[in-house]
Amino acid sequence: MTERSRWRRQQATRWDERLLQAYSDYGHAVKECANLYLRLAAGRNLTDHPAPLESTNGALEEAATAERRRSAMVEPMRLLADAGTADAVRALNRCLWHLEWLARGPMPGDAATWAEAFSAYRSARAAFYDQARQGLGVAKMASLQEAPWPPSWRPVRPPSDP
User: Fold this and answer.
1) Which of the four pLDDT bands, split at 50, 70 and 90, describes residue 9?
2) Which of 48, 99, 120, 131 could form a disulfide with 37 if both were Cys (CB 3.0 to 4.6 A apart)?
3) In this structure, are residues 111 and 158 in contact, taking their beta carbons and an 8 Å threshold?
4) What is the DSSP annotation of 81-121?
5) What pLDDT shows up at residue 158?
């Protein structure tokens, strides 16, 4: 009986470690995509970013590669995530795809549309992390909550300014 209990604890720990790694990998891939989309959107004057990226074939391929990586990171969660986290992943994916379509150009948009889509993305990302922490039994950490964007120290200029 003791051996069986120990084996169950070891299995639970093993799956929690894999789940934590899956969440971390996915979160990193999401952030990589969002950063590329933000830079592409800045290149289209939808937003402000210190390193705008023109929509060249190379930049678009880099974004497509990041999206394929993000997509692959979803697969382990299909096996391991609880229902709440899986729902949060789906919502975050939809928000990220909206950013992609605005940044790449197939969907028309302006600075206000971008700002609304980016705000929805940030909220969805925060919800994903909240669900992931809850699923792993990790307490919510106030210091990791999202800060307002853009930060108060950053001057905001209209997207049409050079």
Assistant:
1) low
2) 99
3) yes
4) --HHHHHHHHHHHHHHHHHHHHHHSSS---HHHHHHHHHHH
5) 52
